[in-house]
Amino acid sequence: MTYRSRTAFRVVGALLTGAVLGGTAACTAGGAAGDRSGASARPDATTVAAVQRAATKGAGLNSLSYRVSGKVPGQGAVKGKASFSLRPRVVEMRMTASGGLQEGEFSVRLVRDAVYVGGGEQAAVVLGGKHWLKLAMTDQGAGGFGGMQRQADQDPAAQASLLPGSDDVRKVGEETVDGVRTTHYAGVVDVAKAAKKPTGKRSSGAERRTKVIEQYQELGVSELKLDLWVGPGDRTVKFRQRARATQGPLDISIRFLDVNKPVTVQAPPASDTVDPEAKLKGASRRLG
After folding, report:
1. Summary mean pLDDT of the chain
2. What does DSSP assign to residue 126?
3. Is residue 154 very low, low, confident or very high in pLDDT (cuts 50, 70, 90)?
4. How many CA atoms lie within 13 A of 97 on its CB side?
5. 3-state helix, strand, coil in the chain (%, to 5)
6. How far is CA 57 from CA 15, 54, 89, 237, in A?
7. 212-221 burial, b if ≥16 CB within 10 A, otherwise e?
8. For 59-83, what is the mean pLDDT?
9. pTM above threshold 0.90
10. What are the tens digits of pLDDT across the range 174-196?
11. Of 3, 275, 9, which is closest to residue 141 (Cα–Cα)?
12. 106 within 8 A of 117, measured Cβ to Cβ
């Protein structure tokens, strides 16, 4: 790999590493999840059931669009919008990072078996005028891109599904979020204990829950403070997660928007994309 290619990996990788941990909107109302002063020794069964209904509804989502903002470890503040679909498996994220090691706008697209990373003009400087870098989903290689697959796989609905397992899940109160009447719930989740809890029969929801627990463990998160705002029809309206990760504090809020609506994501033009894997294969053929 050339010096320019290595530099491209570092620059665009720094823009994106850890940038969409929740899922990935910070205007949080109500009490803090970390305040356990009002928590009882055992969660109220009615509260647990209400949160579980919302988690079950979320587990049934095939697609979701959401706004996200907050702070991520090592990256400062982020804000933007994302959409994903499980079937077909596609993701598109558009984010802005500020106050961290790298600043600027960037995008991530997952299309079939490839992740496309765009860093705008900042990326073009080190990509020979092109704006996108293509990576195979199995690529765990250089320049901070080992986490690309995890980042493209973010699943806010599955992250919210951890709250019913909190030992102190509780109802905070009734609140209005962007004109929607909601009930605010909160709790603290021990990630190690959550990992040991049985997930029941193997299903899409159970597999998604297992994946997000593994993602938190990879980030060095041991305790999650979660807030959930549930609206009509047991639909999640807003979700907030806070934690201390290996690289610093995590505080991300997500405002759920469209659910189960078609999500279409197109790969960037090949003429505007650098594909290091294809270049390496071409070099190998020439050398062979």
Report:
1. 77
2. H
3. low
4. 26
5. 30, 35, 35
6. 33, 5, 20, 12
7. bbebbeebeb
8. 86
9. no
10. 999 999 999 999 999 999 998 88
11. 9
12. yes
